[in-house]
Write a structure and sequence with these properties.
3-stranded mixed sheet; single chain; alpha+beta; 3 strands; 3 helices; 88 residues
């Protein structure tokens, strides 16, 4: 039997996962915002503040935000950030 989880419940779970990372982002003047969770269970995030322009944002996203969400919310299939700064 599969449990049906509505979008509000998913958003709450993702927010809790992000809350575990927010102190680290805030220490460097940044934050993160959920833009949407799509029908195929993809979370789209926007990095805010200094995180939006930091050359380390790709590492922060991959090693921190994406990992925290996928670990805490198994219903989520993919995590994307709309504004990662390329590290080059």
């Amino acid at each position: 039997m599969q449990t049906v989880v509505n979008n509000d419940q998913l958003i709450s779970k993702v927010e809790r996962a992000l809350d575990s990372m927010r102190p680290y982002l805030a220490a460097d003047g940044g934050n993160v915002k959920i833009l949407e969770i799509t029908e195929d269970k993809t979370v789209r995030l926007e990095l805010m503040g200094s995180c939006g322009s930091c050359p380390m944002s790709a590492m922060t996203f991959k090693g921190g935000l994406e990992e925290a969400i996928l670990k805490a919310v198994p219903e989520i299939t993919k995590v994307e950030a709309v504004n990662i700064t390329p590290a080059f």
